[in-house]
Amino acid sequence: MLSYIPHSTLNLSFHSIAYLHQIWWLEVEGDVDFELPAGRYSLYFRLKLGRPSNKQCSTTTHQIHGWNIKPVRFQFSVSNGEQATREHFLNEQGKWLRYHVGDFVIENSYNPTKINFSMTQIDCTHQKGGLSLDSVFICDNKLDMNHACKD
Predict the structure, then answer these.
(1) Which of 44, 62, 70, 110 has the largest CB neighbor count within 10 A?
(2) Which residues pair with 18 in a beta bridge?
(3) Per residue in 84-140, pLDDT tens?
(4) From CA 13, how far away is CA 1, in angstroms rounded?
(5) Sheet containing 25-35: order of strands
(6) Alpha-carbon distance 82 to 3, whole Å?
(7) SS3 labels along the chain
């Protein structure tokens, strides 16, 4: 079961987040198509184990289960042929984390670039639940990750 949770007090990227109550498998896919200046970039998923609460900095963690059994696979591909795959176990509860998928290079400034991305955990032997998804984002590697892409 999936819910969209509106928020007004949490430091999130959009006006609502996706919260997965309980599932057997997970498939999140998307794409963006835009022009970027030449440079090196990183792609991240921003996730949290637990359901954010309306109370500042509060998280409900009692419904979290199944994410420590098999890793989640994160992937992206860029229209210039670059691609990356990374697997992460989701273990840390109660805070927003950035899961780094990989880096890519744009050589020609402001040419149209399409980026496909996905996050999957397809193992129907166990249920999973209690995952919040805020966003997928791309950061220029010249920026200091502790400040520019800060949670």
Answers:
(1) 44
(2) 4, 133
(3) 999 999 999 989 999 999 999 999 888 999 999 999 999 888 899 999 999 999 999
(4) 22
(5) 25-35, 112-122, 72-78, 83-88
(6) 33
(7) CEEEEECCCCCCCCCEEEEECCECEEEEEEEEEEECCCEEEEEEEEEEECEECCCCCCEECCCCECCCCCCEEEEEEECCCCEEEEEECCCCECCCEEEEEEEEEECCCCCEEEEEEEEEEECCCCCEECEEEEEEEEEECCCCCCCCCCC
